[in-house]
Amino acid sequence: MNTPGAGRLRLGACLSLTGRHGRFGRQACTALEIWNDFEPGVDLLIEDDQSDPEGFDAIFRRVASKCDILLGPYSTQLMRRAGNAAAELDRLVWNHGGSGDDVEAAHPGHVVSVLTPTSRYAELFLRRLASGQEPGRLWIVHGKGSFGRQVADGAESLARRLGIEASPGEQLPGEDADSPWDLLCAGSFEEDVETVTRARLLPRPPRTVCAVAAGVREFGEAVEQPEEIFGIGQWFPGAGGRAELGLDESDFLAAYSDRTGTLPDYPAAQAAATAAIATYCARTAGTARDALWEAASRLDTTTLFGRFKIDPSTGVQVGHEPCLVRWGSQGPVADSA
């Protein structure tokens, strides 16, 4: 293991460069390559996990055997496997891609999470809904995986505390709906696109729509006329503020745009920020698992992604806040209401 401040570091990550999570895994990969350009003292190893849960463990263990610092995959499902493997190997994995509450808290001492937990995703949207027009019934439609269910559970709990009548489940209201209603959906990108499309074709469509998938720019290509739809994301350009560790947001955005011709979504920002945090801890404390955990537990800082602070007993992220965006004619912008 490397001692504090000694020698080159080896940082490895399993990312979905292909398969169902490829659209976001490739963004994370590009972000890590850009981060590495600004952090030349680190050797970067990225392997394609192909979005495949069955083959993930072997790839993760191979990467772990070659690296001092381990970043997790994109996807709550795959990160669940990464956490289990890290605990078995007595390693620490830095979680930038799996926000499930159970994933963040599953292995104290072995998983450090940078992301706002799923149960808190909908807070800004629900508070906006509660402070606006006369509330109708809120339909909370989740996907088939645990990610969507956890977002829905957290949203339902807060909605009831805010006095919003909520109906959680996997189905939209019937075509005979006769009263105003609003929609929050949380699933995979494809599930959210399908739910939003079907909802807007109903005889009585929702007054207000919010979808987790609408937090990324590709949503505008998948849904016709996305204007006025709200999206939820872990980050949006302009949301990060001043970075105490790693790249400034302006430098990151410029480098990403130069390389790809587009602006990044939050999967890219969270990967770059996690690499900066993990490298800082390794340089100050060494790469032994317990030393990394202690360093991360003491840290309260900011990156281009926003604030970083974990619960020192669980590794769950408590400092970072998600973003609410609203689609306009020129694309999504941070919601200021």
Percentage beta strand: 15-25%
CATH topology of the largest domain: Rossmann fold
Radius of gyration: 20 Å
> How do the SSEs run, as a string of H and E?
EHEHEHEHEHEHEEHEHEHHHEEEE
How many beta-strand segments?
14
CATH class of the largest domain: Alpha Beta
Overall spatial form: globular
* Major beta sheet, strand line-up: 7-6-8-9-10-13-14
Our count of domains comes out at 2
Low-pLDDT segments = none
Number of helices: 11
CATH homology group of the largest domain: Response regulator
What labels would you give this structure?
7-stranded mixed β-sheet; Rossmann fold; 5-stranded parallel β-sheet; 2 domains
Describe the 3D structure.
With 337 residues, the chain is an alpha/beta fold. The protein has two domains: 9-116 and 238-321, Rossmann fold; 120-233, 3-Layer(aba) Sandwich (Rossmann fold), CATH 3.40.50.2300. Helices cover 39% and strands 18% of the residues. The strands form three sheets. A seven-stranded mixed sheet has the order 7-6-8-9-10-13-14, with helices on both faces. α1 packs across α9, α2 crosses α3 and α10 crosses α11 (289-298). The chain is globular.
